[in-house]
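quick one, two chains, predict together pls
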Amino acid sequence: MTADAAITAHELTRRFGGFTAVDRITFDVRAGEVFGFLGANGAGKTTAIRMLTGLLAPSSGRATVAGYDIAREAERIKRRIGYMSQRFSLYEDLTVRENIRLYGGIYGLSDRDIDDRTTRLLARLGLEHAAGQFVRAIPLGWRQKLAFSVALLHQPRVVFLDEPTSGVDPITRRQFWELIYEAAAAGTTVLVTTHYMDEAEYCDRISIMVAGRIAALGTPAELKRSFTVSSIDDLFVRLARET
Amino acid sequence: MNAAPTAAVVADTLDKRFGATQALGGVSFSVEAGELFGFVGPDGGGKTTLFRILATLMLPTAGSARVLGADVVRDLWSLRPRIGYMPGRFSLYPDLSVVENLQFFAAVFGTTIAAARAQIAPIYSQLEPFNDRRAGALSGGMKQKLALCCALVHRPEILLLDEPTTGVDAVSRREFWDLLGDLKRSGITILVSTPYMDEATRCDRVALMQRGQLLATDTPQRIAASFDRPLLAVHAADRYRALLALREWPRTRAVYPFGESLHYVDARAAARPEAIAPEVAAFLTGRGFTDVHVSTATPTVEDAFIARMGAPDGAHRA
């Protein structure tokens, strides 16, 4: 484990009764890295993310996020991470500005900070004109970009993105990835899940979980070389079928 | 619209409004009997609304559609049993077992699993080992297979599958498309929608759909080939910075991440890609990028979609 690791997991395990959902996974994510966390449905990704975000205690093993232990310091972790998913991120019955204000308040930002960051965020996304609109009334692509920016509002060291681009059009999907690159270039660590296998290629490194274990870990280029496959899609299918 | 006599579906300027929102704006197309036909596009494009109208579950605001020769509004009751519809949202009974769900859907249409055996065999053989498992406890991929089986159990003549692979992992998605290929060989007509552009190649023909309109309707090969500008695949050590650098170059029409490379579209429409590749490489090398490699690229359906869609759904205001 290196000093600048944003996430470290060592033999991290979670059992539910007799079922081992996450089985001794070990990996590090460097600060500022874009890390793709891949796996088939039911492979254990969600359970692992729930442990890393301090929502679920591990059965055994250790992990740290932003320097804090996930078992003993879960509350500190929650303040220092951002989270967004396709399923839930913003309140549809609040306006764009109200959503930003709500999340700023939850993370304990001062009124002045919230005002400053709201202005900057709206300008960056070109959403000034939509500040007073209900979130349900703005297009999905905007919503997802807004949700990502809101997840970064309190300047977390690590942000978890769970299928952030699901169902988004191909141009907006790529604009979303540019926001990810921009955040990573500014030092934010990004852990992202996706079912779009081309997006796996956009990550600095990826892991592929199969049946609770990490079956592959490395840069997309390294993995394609060492497994002699032409795409991450092919590797994904091959690993999943071996079980 | 003049449709061939073998058309399984004919839609003529279908419109659907919800208050001020236009979900479908004049959608026309026809699907031949026995075709595997895909509607490809992002959420909010009108795919679900279209499928609900074709499945006789929703009235169009204007325009008309015929499925298997029957009008989706007037002939609702005679048409409904001839359609197998799989909604986008998981709509089986989670507290019933696999076999109970199948029995239920068979009974609703006045038939039995045994009577449908031949038609559902390729799918049911994969589900049968889990006959007694609650549907709610199945994996995402198995849930979709069960839903497909339930849509087939009354032996319909056409299948309408609304986003059956959304949120399903890449392996289960491949298996699901393999099953659709098997079903197609049995002669059934299949309409399927998907947000995944790469799945377009599994269809005989596709319609690209965005904001309630069809952008193009053709074979996936011809749609990909309709991309008529010079396209290059660009590799460089620092991909994100290379993307930003190319975007400032006056010769760039578009540049965007595409799998392991960047796709670069040149503004000079008539130029030969082979001739442009060294120029792009020289530009990046001159800007200090290392490991630069530029080659010609074959356009995909996704490139064609990007070129045709104009402003994205999440566009900044112009």
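The first helix of chain A runs from residue 45 to 52.
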